[in-house]
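The instructor's notes for this session suggest beginning with a concrete chain rather than abstract definitions. Hand out the sequence below and ask the class to guess, before any prediction is shown, which regions might be ordered.
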Amino acid sequence: MIRRRSTPWIHRWSRTVMGAIAAIGVVETAYLTIAKFTTGSVICPTSGCDKVLNSPYATAFGTVPLSLLGCLAYLSIAILAFAPKAVNPDTNKGLHSQLEKWTWQALFIITAAMVIFSSYLVYLMAFEIKELCIYCISSAVFSLSLFVLVLVGREWEDIGQLVFTGILVAMVSSIGALGLYNSVSAPAASVSTPGIVPPVVTTTSAPAQIALARHLRQIGAKEYGAYWCPHCHDQKMLFGKEAAKIIDYFECDPRGQNSRAEICQAAAANVKGFPTWEIQGQFYSGTQTLDKLAELSGYTGPRNFQN
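After discussion, reveal the predicted structure:
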């Protein structure tokens, strides 16, 4: 009599564990998405969470929060993990078998892509933004855990095909991540030209200031100023040092650092003094309050501005 080999416990419980982890991921990313669209601030033991989540790297295509994409990815994994359980293998063995095979392939592709993408995001957090976000780290751990569970949660018959698929997913995910962030304007100027440096901005940006600065940049708003202008410095101090770097600022004095005097000259008919804001084709002279800039630009985010 041939004894039937028992199914390893990891094979019996892998889908349930994946579904549970994915459900936690859905809750986390849904919370971050809601916070992104409302207050712009999250509960966190450090200020790094808000700075990371309000950085230019926290959105895709300029407007879509990455947390929303993550929420959809986790939701997809939860659905795929539990899908075969909705079909009774005793009454519909064929459909159940097909669902098992298809969902495992889909789970492998999605979790592999999430590991590649989350790894790149952790790199950006550590070396570009240089802040710590516990939500980002936990999401990276969730992604890696899901990928490991997919690998050990069943017996893969064709290892060669699995490796080949993994290589393709890694290539596509890496190219997609690099392409997505290649167009992101980093907070600091990418090119530095000689010139007189303006006074240092010493105030700190709150999440609301960063969100407003990102909104102004996204709609193409411009601030014309000069390094020697005290009112220009006052305007930057209202935003804070982090948000001031996001603003699309035009140094109009040829002697100033990173001068864009030629562009200022083209707008000279409308720039009567410094600072002057150009927002949606209209020009506004003088230091503007952040509430006024929010009103003029159609900003709908949080307005608990500091400074």
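Then share the key points. Confidence is low (pLDDT under 50) at residues 185-191. The first strand starts at residue 59 and ends at 60.
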